[in-house]
User: Which sequence fits this backbone?
């Protein structure tokens, strides 16, 4: 099946492969995990609330009777918790697919993580930066690992500029979200450069516009909430369709390292994934190196040199 007509039905057997998905208890993360399990992957469902993850695992076993999902308690807003969650996996597991999917959006006031980092960037970018670093031993045990980080169309907004990364000078809810999603892409570009020459691939994707739990954080007031509800019915794609870019990036042979993939359909809400133009300057090695150094400073995490 050509990339122009791809659907998740074209995913090959994933028997013997292990996938870890963050934010896997609902929305795009759960749909991604379900499809990977349907194709034979062993899935690790990672999330902050043990009760929600246990419920998601039970739902997945009901949806895919052959699945044997496992749960990983993971709080992306707590660097020590990230380290502790990753440690047993890094020690002896092989992870073939990592989907950095979890995120928060439109947090009304500036809040911080347990480590004092601005919550949106701290969770969406720095939490996944630290998780990926800690999991590199498990990822590089794979013959050809895929690291897929879920960004968003918001990455292309002007407010996504990475100056004032922690929003210390000015906090705007969707500006912080746009920064976090731009950082996801710049991080992926730099990671792809560092993995060059190996069989491992790093890709970023965006799901288009989809109805997910992210909309729960809208700070636009009653009118804004009514607009989101109307958009959900008329403009936004489904969480099932929004999972397609992640699934394509994780499994398709044509998904190149460093790519930014999104839906090809009208208004980029659905359809076979295709390459999407990067935000201006996002592929700059100088910007990538600068964000990498700043991310290491803020998290205290240093990436191990990848094995080829």
Assistant:
């Amino acid at each position: 099946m050509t990339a122009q007509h791809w659907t998740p039905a074209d995913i090959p057997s994933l028997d013997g492969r292990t996938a870890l998905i963050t934010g896997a208890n609902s929305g795009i993360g759960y749909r991604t995990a379900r499809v990977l399990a349907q194709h034979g992957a062993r899935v690790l469902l990672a999330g902050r609330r043990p009760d929600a993850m246990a419920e998601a695992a039970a739902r997945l076993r009901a949806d895919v009777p052959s699945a044997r999902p496992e749960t990983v308690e993971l709080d992306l807003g707590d660097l020590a918790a990230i380290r502790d969650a990753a440690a047993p996996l890094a020690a002896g597991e092989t992870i073939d697919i990592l989907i950095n999917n979890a995120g928060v959006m439109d947090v009304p006031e500036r809040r911080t993580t347990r480590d004092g980092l601005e919550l949106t960037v701290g969770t969406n970018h720095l939490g996944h930066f630290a998780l990926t670093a800690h999991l590199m031993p498990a990822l590089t045990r794979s013959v050809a690992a895929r690291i897929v980080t879920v960004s968003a169309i918001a990455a292309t907004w002007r407010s996504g500029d990475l100056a004032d990364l922690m929003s210390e000078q000015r906090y705007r809810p969707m500006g912080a979200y746009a920064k976090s999603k731009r950082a996801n892409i710049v991080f992926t570009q730099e990671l792809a450069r560092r993995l060059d020459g190996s069989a491992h691939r790093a890709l970023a994707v965006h799901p288009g516009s989809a109805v997910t739990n992210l909309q729960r954080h809208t700070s636009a007031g009653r009118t804004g909430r009514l607009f989101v509800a109307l958009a959900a019915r008329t403009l936004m794609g489904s969480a099932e369709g929004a999972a397609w870019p992640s699934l394509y990036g994780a499994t398709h042979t044509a998904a190149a390292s460093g790519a930014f993939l999104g839906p090809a359909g009208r208004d980029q809400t659905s359809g076979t994934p295709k390459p999407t133009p990067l935000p201006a300057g996002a592929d700059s090695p100088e910007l990538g190196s600068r964000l990498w150094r700043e991310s290491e400073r803020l998290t205290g995490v240093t990436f191990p040199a990848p094995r080829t």
Observations:
- The domain at 8-208+239-298 is CATH 3.40.50.720 (Rossmann fold).
